[in-house]
Amino acid sequence: MKSSYYFVLLTTLFLASGTVFGQTPSPKVATVNLSKIDPGSYDGSWWNRTPVRLIQTNLRETDALMNTDAYVQSMVDASANVVMLNVGGIVANYPTKLDYHFRNQFMKDGDLVGDLVKKLHAKGIKVIGRFDFSKINEIYAEKKPEWLYVGTNGKHVHFNGQVHTCPNGGYQQEYGFEILKEAITKYPLDGIFFNMIGYTTSDYSGTYHGICQCDNCKKRFQTETGMTLPVKADMNDPVFRRYNTFKKTTADELFYKIGDYVKKLNPNLIVNTYADAGVDMIRDESSSWLTDDYEWNYSGTDHVKRVLGSYKDKTPSNVFIYFIAIPFRHTATSPNIGRVWLLGNMLNGAPLDFNVIGTLVNQDDRVFIPILNDLYGFHKKNEKLFTNLKPVSHVGLIKGAEKEYRGMIKLLSEEHIMYDIIEPLTIGSKSAPRSLQEYDALILGDLPNMSDLLIAQLDEYVQKGGKLLATGFSSTNDETGKPMQKIRLKSLGVAPEYELFPRANSTYLQVSASDKKTLGTDTFKDLDLVMMYSDFMKCKISGQAQHYMKLVPTVRFGPPEKSYFTDAEITDAPGLISNTYGKGQTVFIPWRLGSQYEFKGNHAHRALFVSALQNVLQTPGSIKTNASPLIEMTHMTNRNGAFEWIGMINHSGQVGASLREPIPIQNTTVRFKPAKPVKQLKLMRSGSELKFTQSNGWVECVVPNVADFEMLVCLYQ
């Protein structure tokens, strides 16, 4: 009894002192004196590689009755420094004098835009004016049918009193410019945003109405191509492929035309929209849809990396769409996926961007608002650390077919490989932030449509010493999508001709003992067969190329007694080809490995990807870690040499469609090579300082806890 008494007494004393048995001492709490940090400026602009915190409010007509002071205060409380709000197009939220511009009937004698711009500017908040020329009110549509989109059924598209317009009609080509001129000359806006640009063929309910058949489209397509406008979307039809090119060139022409017009009216205005052409901020969305598909966890990362890796003179504007789906715009999507999407923006050094229907004040579902204020507040408090950044990435992912591309993003993220995303059309351009030769390795994930120029650029990259991992049907079409029936990249170590093996059940790749010596004995110790549920190219090896794995096509899978195959059924068609080309090396996987991983997340596909990149191509990693695959990592450095940091996003908490709070992940070892000798390591989310070791240019530390996210800041000696 006496010993029990002393144990209880000792325990009480320990607990009173804050000590818990089995718990390591808490890291030292540290403060970062950001006043001494000089991040410099990227290009002197307020919007490019700067700490932008944007909130977009898609104002309803009834919001003209709001308390504008409360609206502005909600933006201050949320730490927004840029606000996007409706100015004109579908509804004019100001007293327009134009004949074909529908004035907000709830505004009465007021000036909503003028009031908000004045009050937001007084708080130091910039304003981007939102315009939508994709639709026009029915009362004007009746008077101007030549402005309207015409579906393949010969009818106009009406939705809630609005009618679809056509990019080749007079409204978008001419009258919209009058609306812009009126608003820009009337208000001191900081930017312009255009909604639903280009060729809109579906309405809000998702109903598809087909290729526009208006007289303007027919005439312009005939004049430019000598062809008759197609009525069916079919990539096997050369006329439709030409129409696809026509759509892009005419849409880009309109974007450039609008951009030039806006800049002439006010050179300080920035242009923001869902296009790469003629804009400063490239808009994209992280949003939920009314489908059975799970949410795309890496949506934020995907969208901002694509812009940051492709353009040095443009910035991403990837917005988290708050509502759960367009047919359910009055309720919000999961707050936990919303957090992850915003963190994907923030920890890749991109602007924060958030959208609501209505205002922050009048939301019926407010669950995410405290998270919004928390993340935006963190960003504001540490905004010097989000200024003038560039990624520390040694691998470039060239954007290819969507499923292959997503699978590659998952693989790279789960394996903690630092990467950029590159838009193919920007390779070699003046706006590209990096040359290809700056990357240790490139991944070309199933990009069939390639120009002769792009093929030459990639072959040259390899010839000069680069490493290329190519998958799927890369280089088999021309840039318009016309099938060329041959593999055109010379560096891959295969003959141009190939035989297509269509996707089929019960098809595999056999991994032999000799294959494992190259791919990795430990990795493939317990793997002799890999699922291959993809179209496959039977290739002929050329030169000194080496081949690995063999195709085992459509073997029996039922009944169980008959589910086997013999050696006679194993073909010689290789599943992976390695080749030396000039000073460089390639690995060609003639099937869609990334799509397979996106489809099933299978361990064998992951093992093959890692082996190809690290064992065969010998691509070095810039970060070494034991981090969970559920922690996404980013590595950013300040261009002015003031600091660098590693971002960590916790993706746990998801089970199927359920998106719950992330589970804290403890004791993550991180080893990296900083640009300069390190003085301090600090965790900005927890506010603690880390002990570390430094040897041969590498720094190693242990991050004790990652709750929702962490940001490991490295300050130099």
UniProtKB/TrEMBL annotation:
Keyword flag Hydrolase: yes
CDD domains: A4_beta-galactosidase_middle_domain (cd03143)
Keywords (A to Z) from UniProt: Hydrolase, Signal
Pfam families: GHL6
InterPro entries: Class_I_gatase-like, GH, GHL6
Source organism, top-level taxon: Bacteria
Keyword Ribosomal protein: no
Annotated signal sequence range: 1-22
GO MF assignments: hydrolase activity
Descriptive protein name: Hypothetical glycosyl hydrolase 6
